[in-house]
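Newbie here. two chains, one complex. Structure please?
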Amino acid sequence: MTADIIKPDNRLSIEKSVPGRRAVKFKNILRAKETLPPYLARKNAPKLPELSEFDVVRHYTKLSKLNFSVDTHFYPLGSCTMKYNPRINEEAAALEGFANLHPLAHDNASQGTLEMLYDLERMLCALCGMDAFTLQPAAGAHSEFTGLLTAKAHFERLGQTGRTEIICPDSAHGTNPATAAMLGFTAVNIKSGPDGRVDPAGLKARLSGKTAVLMLTVPNTLGIFESRIEEITEAAHKAGALVYLDGANFNALIGLIKPGDLGVDIMHLNMHKTFSTPHGGGGPGAGAIGVRKHLEKFLPVPRVIKDGGAYKTDCARPCSIGKVKAFFGNTGVLTRAYAWLLMHSKKELEAVAENAILNANYIKSRLEAVYPAHSGERCMHECVLTPPAELTARGLKTLDIAKRLLDYGFHAPTIYFPLIVHEAIMIEPTETESKETMDSFVETMLKINDEGAADPQLLKDAPHTMPVKRLDEVQAARQPNLRW
Amino acid sequence: MFIPNTLKDREEMLKTIGVSSIKDLLRQVPGKYLYPAFDLPETSLDEQQTARRMKTLAAGNPPILSFLGAGAYERYIPAAVKALISRGEYLTAYTPYQAEASQGLLQTIYEYQSSVCALYAMDCANASMYDGASAFGEAVRAAARVTGRKKVLCQETLNPQYLRTLKTYFANSEEYRFVTVPHKDGLLDAEKLAGLLGADTACLAFQTPNFFGLPEDAPKLSELAHKAGALVVAAADPASLGLFTPPGEYGADFAVGEGQSLGLSLSYGGPYLGVFTCKKEYVRQMPGRIAGMTRDKDGRRGFVLTLQAREQHIRRDKAASNICSNEALCALSATIYLALLGPEGLKELGLANARAAAFAAERLAAVKGAALLFKAPFFNEFVLQVKSDATSLREKILAKERIDIGLPLKNFYQGLGPGALLVCATETKTEEDILRLQKALKENI
């Protein structure tokens, strides 16, 4: 084989286009009187590729092969919970009864989906110790949006419109302050203590009659549990604020700890993390917001209710914040999450968190002698490490280690996050990875340290085996080329 | 259960860590919170039982002949779309943070952006948003940011779900004013619009075809808005764009749409696809992910996520939006769908829809006691006025014939009366389907 043949074909679909070539056709054109106004007729055909069906299938099959994915590679992306996505979930969501159901279908014709949604809400309430859940948000950030809007409605109803501040620790995901700002709140940043935890004294100094919500990620983005959570939530409540739990890291809590017990008023879950639905290359996800009883009336419409033996959608909610998307949530994703939950008893859910925590601690304890951990403590479901001093002394960075990992068939961990850790390497193995995979990852990380010490350039030039070498991101941003 | 660790593995791992039990790993958690009682089943289902339970639930949504539209449309999804998007390499990847190991996905996003730009005749697109309504909300937010103005004009015939989402996207704030431009015979009243436009108007935000299925005279509306210094935010059904003038050609500043029409199943409301496009001067106002083409060290073509300085993970509370994920797999469906249709297929799709609806309208208007409410041309849905109460008629026919005749409008537009019904027929409806509907209506009206 010549090099040209094995070189990946990176032509765009439009570059493979041949005028006149067709794939899908529509022959069911009924006979009726034309009514379309000629002055609105499209004159220039859109520049779309003209391909055969086989061209399309080959093009996108080939492109798929240029990707790392959970199915093909260990993907220890911290904070993203890249666990195995069971195939039964896909089969369930594709069932015609679910897939073909119109969002405005009559309740009488949607009893199956409504029962599923009702049951899923109930199970999430039990799992989290919350009083009510809505399944409408389309994603994690969208959940934060829904949750903070609920808080806003609550304070407006109380007449406490002076509560304009949302407190977020500096370790929080960027979505927390971004959501606060999007809703017109002021995001107040509080500094984490040296152990990555919220410092209750520092928090108390920032709490005031202006505080609407304290947003906490538990465990935090360093994979550490807020041990003084009781003191924290009590202080927030004493100031009249609500406590919001960002459930991005719920994989550490599921079946072990109920957020409701921690004094949380509003929380979100990411179905595409803990509940095993696929990440789809960036989405779709699905979110859920859980609240205490007194906040339920603010949740988005419609609510799914049970009335005798029948399930109904209820829109008559005068206090509701309204709608966060056109129709009910990402039901197709929720269907997958529900299937996964059915396959887990109480004990089995507990084992999810236990093994997620065990795996993270295993990787941490095997690597921390070479890759110093940010914290000497045990971690929960993920650990944050830093590059070996030996490598940084040679001018190597976390990015170089990450790129070299790709050469060995491992997706890199999350890097440079949380922002409060210099050169962070954030590793989340999840419960679905085996000891052999983790051992192999650990050995590779150790090998990369040796390689970097012996030949720093090898890492600086990495990756060597991917379809492309390191890409010029500066040029991409300076002269954006965003379409054909 | 998807946990590979055996008891032996667990023991070895605990030993390596230097603890004797999982509980030793949990010392940082106050003991009173650990292992609480849960009101959850003690037993779980195996895969076969789960499959059965899911099938039983799915059967609770019986197959019906449905003429519902109103923002979500029954479409034929080509088998190749489903086959390709179920490939694990796409399905189980995540946001392409490591570009070198995600070239396939990044290229598909670039192709998606290109395809929707071509479809809407716009300069730039992002990598997608949650749905049409959230894209619409974000576009109006961007228009308000750009102009610094606080008044938003919306057409009365905007999908009511979009209007509610829009208000939510402005945090139900009273700082912004949403003013409704009334319709005249189903179409936005241009005279009234001219009177409402002013130096305080951020944008005119409308959809076409509108909620009643009628294509607006978008070029004229756009011209009026621009004359007043307002921006134009247009929501257009992508399935209509093989036939109709695309937003870019009438100068829309932001153009959005519900991408569900492009190869996605209805799935009771999601996951869908928010198409978001804009003129190039507003590229840095776009929310969400954007992929761009660049070169690698050897000069080879490659793709990366770009212009990230707009985004929440960099800008935090100064970001254009809080959005983090996109709907990449849905965007991939749309990309493949558009590649399979090509320009000709897209035109055929539009025609198949327009003709199905026109045929349905002819037949239904011939039923005694039913008439079309508006005279204006429509795309794939129209408002039918029936002499009886549309809500009870719908329930009656649903129970008797397993046909959903469409969406009664009285909850959304009280002025139209109890007989107004929004009926939709897409390319999935055959002559027989429509004759069945006609018969059911005739016998039950």
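Moderator note: The domain at 88-342 of chain A is CATH 3.40.640.10 (Aspartate Aminotransferase; domain 2). Residues 346-367 of chain A form the longest helix (22 residues). Thread marked as resolved.
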